[in-house]
Amino acid sequence: MAVNNELFKGTLQTIILNLLSENERMYGYEITQKVKAITKGELLLKEGALYPALHKLEADGLLDTATEVVGNRVRKYYSLSKSGEKEVVNKLQEAKDFIAHLQVLLNLKSSF
Amino acid sequence: MAVNNELFKGTLQTIILNLLSENERMYGYEITQKVKAITKGELLLKEGALYPALHKLEADGLLDTATEVVGNRVRKYYSLSKSGEKEVVNKLQEAKDFIAHLQVLLNLKSSF
DNA sequence: TTTATATACATAAGAAAACTATGTATATAA
DNA sequence: TTATATACATAGTTTTCTTATGTATATAAA
User: Fold this and answer.
1) How far apart are CA A24 and CA B58, in angstroms?
2) Hey, where are the domains in chain A?
């Protein structure tokens, strides 16, 4: 998933859900480009990680899908379901707690 | 590893190395208790995660060990090797970058 | 014109990390 | 004597991600 970083394991679902909470709907390739842009190319979301993650979120009922043909190419748009909208709140809180704990464990609190 | 959190995957080595960078030497059980104390019981480091991680760090030459008998019980003390002292600096920088990226990706920047 | 790159999806095989469960052993508190 | 705490270890399983591969269209470069 990352250029040289093991740390993002487990954060992918939260990242996807959060992007969809602020973008209404997105398709897979768009998500990879968005992540790349936000992190200035430092975090490269691989298809092998993204698509299975999207399929799992859909299977879990957190995402709705709509397939469209744009310029002869198929796009599969994803958006948050009702469940997804609730879950993203939990996931973001967990991420905040995680970061707080990690900052304490690694003595990084002083940098803020 | 965590009470209800998948997110710490990949951070264990960094946590161990950082604890040893500020404690001279520690043994396994002591590390589990320290993590528990720092996170107020919210992050429980399991033996099944800790001991293999310690063995790997030792095998990679990042940790030195010294076995001692304390009150009829065997303790295996771990300390940073020269390599470990260098590596902990890298790992901490990676963790800082990781947190920064994650805060941007999840729109958490505003909380600081 | 053919080749590379970008767009857009998908999945199979493998590796890495952690979890669950189990095992050994001593010490102490209930 | 039973449970809990201390102290180590590992086998089997699951989850997650990476690598590699496959299909297909569009466009820019050589």
Assistant:
1) 48
2) 12-111
Q: Do A95 and B101 touch (CB under 8 A)?
A: no
The label of the residue with tokens 């300390």 reads: B79
Tell me how far apart the alpha carbons of residues A47 and A70 are, in angstroms, rounded to a whole number. 20
CB contact under 8 A, B35 and A98: no
- Nearest Cα to A55, choosing from A67, A65, A66? A65
Structure confidence by residue, pLDDT tens digits, B17-39:
999 999 999 999 999 999 999 99
Neighbours of B52 (CB within 10 A): 11
- How far does A70 lie from chain B, in Å, by closest CA? 27
Residue ranges in A22-112 assigned as alpha helix (H): 28-38, 47-59, 82-105
CATH of domain A12-111: 1.10.10.10
pLDDT digits (tens, 9 = 90+) for A81-106: 999 999 999 999 999 999 999 999 99
Which of the pair, B111 or A20, is modelled with greater confidence? A20
pLDDT of residue A6: 85
Strand C footprint nucleotides (protein C-beta < 7 Å)? 7-13, 16-23, 25-27
CB of B51 closer than 8 Å to CB of B16: no
Asked if strand C comes closer than 7 Å to B56 Cβ, the answer is yes
